[in-house]
Write a structure and sequence with these properties.
This protein has 459 residues and is an alpha/beta fold. Helix content is 20%, strand content 31%. Strands 12, 13, 15, 16, 18, 19, 21, 22, 24, 25, 27 and 29 form a twelve-stranded parallel beta sheet that branches. A nine-stranded parallel beta sheet has the order 14-17-20-23-26-28-30-33-36, with no helix packed on it. The relative contact order is 0.07.
Length: 459
Amino acid sequence: MSTYAIVLAAGKGTRMKSELAKVLHEIAGRPMVNWVLGALEAVNVDGSVAVIGHQADAVAAILPEGVVAAVQERQLGTADAVKVGLAALDLAPDDTVLVLPGDMPLITGATLDELLMLHASSGSVATLLTAILEDPTGYGRILRTDGAVAGIVEQRDGTDEQLAVREVNTSVYAFQAGPLQEFIENVATDNSQGEYYLTDIVGLFASEGLPMSGIAGDPVEVMGVNTHAHLATAADHLRNRINTHWLEAGVWMQDPARVYIDAGVELGPGVRLYPNVYLENGTKVGAGSEIGPDVFATGATIGETCKVWYSVIRDSSLGDGATAGPYVSLRQGVAMASGTKAGTFVEMKNTSLGTGSKVPHLSYMGDATIGEKSNIGAGSITCNWDGFTKNPTVIGDRVFIGSDSMLVAPVEIGDDAFTGAGSVITNDVAPGSLAVERSPQKEIKGYAARRRRRAGEEA
């Protein structure tokens, strides 16, 4: 006997008021539907099908490896979507089919495992995950007889007594495959929407006296996302889970409520995170590093014992002991070796900085290769763009670039060389040499007095 999952992810999500399909909206760096599929990994299902429809190609492109995409060409309701999913599976009658919506990102593997265990032990043809809500308005109510599930009544159809029930349907089910395949063919469209509703199958089972069971889950976990307000609420819960995980793993946070960590981020023990830190997918931070306050990092690899504050790091790497900030912008392709420094108001792009080298402040280094133990003086830039192409600058080991130097690429500065402050370097500089390019200083005696007299005459 095997267990398979069908995730319903075909809808547009009209209430999101967005051109993007609902299940593609990201929460903590992961599309909503992939949070649901991630919960399934914890229960080791034998196969998963995502039923897709609206923006099918885009949804299929983000599905994890091994998840089968089945296209519902016309969105005719949840029962029709399940039929599409069933057609993509090779089921035996005694297999278990777990059905859940793709817009329930807070569901956990532990809850799904509990549902499946009850289903296996109860002998039910259907086991429902329910929730008990303080205010169940708008939800279908669970009807029970002697404790067993006997049906679902929708809000618009319930009596006063039925609507007083606080146990609601969450649209998560475990079915026995044989009865599901048989009875789903009898679901009709005699409802106000003219759609095939999966909830109707519960009534069909009840009419035949087939056993059903239900288990109440955490109301937070079973929250569906239908609006941007729901999306923000779900994101808040997921951030809390993620931050709690890292706190328990030895990461220090001065104010966890102001730290934003995506699901795919990796942190070493002893990392210290200050307020307003945003770590997006692909970012890795080594043990003992201090990040923040006010840091945005995406696709960044930050080594051990680094310090980064008031900075933006994009698709770049910092070696052990490197520092960046305050007010540093590292654009794509920056590789800072161990012990390097990018200081106040420094921008770098597609640049490598050798061990122990420093760009202390007010400089731009683009398309540059900088050797070891070199120092870039304040206000220096590489003039890497000639209006048509990007050109490289190569700076050797132990080089001293004087303040306010302009290095007009392509150009190479040899090991142990110097450039004089305020120089425009257009030619290569030989190792060990000093390159100076500036006009002789002139001094005009009495200029201030003459300037004041002229200003008075003009007045």
